[in-house]
Structure formats: C-alpha cells, structure tokens
Amino acid sequence: MTPHKVTFSLLLFLIVGSLSAKTSFAKTPTGGRLAVVVDERLAALRNTPELTGRLVRRLGRGRLVAIRGSRTTPDGVVFLLVNVTSRTHGWIQREAVVSAARAGDDRRLLDLINASSGFDRVVRARIFLDQFPRSPLRRQVLLLLGNAADEQAAKLSREATQRLKDISNAADGRVAFRTSTPEFTYFLNYSGLDRYNRQRILFVFDRTSKRLHYDGAAWRELARRYPNSPEAVEARKRLAELKK
C-alpha cells in the first residue's frame, strides 16, 4: 500500500471513530441518574411539571434519560426533571420510566410486562434484561420473553404464508414463481421478523410443518443460569418440545 493510501485510510478511520463516539455519547445522556422509557403512552416530555405543560417532544420506548430531580403536583402526579440530550431537557411522568438505581422499579416493570402482550411484551422484557442484570426477577422475565416470542412465531408464520401466497398469485401465470429459490428462505427473510431481530429474538423454520419457531435462546439461558428454579423446569419442557 502506498504512503498516501495509508494516510487516507488512517484519516478515514479516525473520522469514522470520532463520529461513532459522538453518536454513542448522544444516546447516553448525562447529568443525573440513568433511566429508560418503558411506557411510551406516558412519555410526553413537557416544559413544566404538569399535565397541561407544553409538549417538548414525545419520547419513544427504550429511550435513555438522566433524572435530575422530581416534583409532585397537587393532585399527586410525580414528574421527573430529565436530560434527554445535552441540549434537551424537560419533565416526564414518573410512571413512564424505570431506573436500575431505584428500588422496586424492576417489580414495576415486571408488572407492566405481565400487562402487555405480543411485541410489546417482547420489547419490555428485553429492556428489563438489559437494565436489571442483577434482579432476582430475571428468571421470570426470561420465561415470559421466551413464551411471548414462541406465541408470536405462530402469528408470524401465518403472515409469512399469506404474504407468499399473495406474491405468488400476483405473479404472471406464465412465469414460474420462486423458480429454484428454497422456500424456507422466503420465510426467514419475511420483513415481519425485522423488528424481532432488532430485539435479538431469532426464529428457525420447520420445513415439514412450514412454520416458524422461536429459537429458544431465553429458555436456554434460563435453564443454564437458574437450573433449580420452577421457571427452569418450564423452560426445559419448552426446549424439549422445540427439539421434537
């Protein structure tokens, strides 16, 4: 490699590294105790600690904030003063976020997970596992996550099958659809799996039944880390069914 090419490559590496660092920094606010949004229905960032305060922005589920303080309204609603970025801050309702530094928030999030269903349950369970690595409630959440993903596999199988039929019916009858492309690749490339993949939830395809199945990662972790728990007994049953 010539000297000028080496210099250019090094410069490009430094620029990309700098941009990555800035992006990472922007995603982790400073100035207070870290918390994460778990209930987007309540995640309105306002300029004053009241429900009638002007909306600054709506925060998405999974967004990190830094808690600077709190204030309680006359009707008992608690608002937290939070930093979202170095330039954006405001007040958010306490129930919208959880923090690993606050006692009881793991239980509160577990209650929210139990009250959720479908993809919402998957996302909130993933937030729990990421934010509460030492919580004694993790084994319950691992089982909930695995079971929720397995339930969604049936729904995703139906959607992928219907999508494949729609494409096939729309194709010109004189042209063979799918030709030599293996059928299972269409299922595993179904766009409905994308958001689960981003939550580190993976699926496998049974070519006999033509169905997607959860790959069982949460159940395996549960059986490995908490082998004597009641949840592990259920996880091993699920894994045995998956193996069949």
Measured distance between first and last alpha carbons: 54 Å
Strand content: 15-25%
**Structural shape:** globular
Q: Which class do the helix and strand fractions yield? A: alpha+beta
How many helices in DSSP terms? 8
Give the topology, please:
Blueprint: H1 3-27, E1 33-37, E2 44-46, E3 55-58, E4 64-72, E5 78-83, E6 89-93, E7 97-98, H2 105-114, H3 118-131, H4 138-170, H5 183-188, H6 194-198, E8 203-206, E9 211-214, H7 217-225, H8 230-243
Antiparallel strand pairs: 1-4, 1-7, 2-3, 4-5, 5-6, 8-9
Helix pairs in contact: 2-3, 3-4, 4-7, 4-8, 7-8
What does this structure look like?
By secondary structure, the protein is an alpha+beta fold. The protein has two domains: 28-102, SH3 type barrels; 135-243, no CATH class. 48% of the residues lie in helices and 17% in strands. It has helices at residues 3-27, 105-114, 118-131, 138-170, 183-188, 194-198, 217-225, 230-243, and strands spanning 33-37, 44-46, 55-58, 64-72, 78-83, 89-93, 97-98, 203-206, 211-214. The strands form three sheets. It has a five-stranded antiparallel β-sheet with strand order 6-5-4-1-7. The model is unreliable at 3-26 (pLDDT under 50).
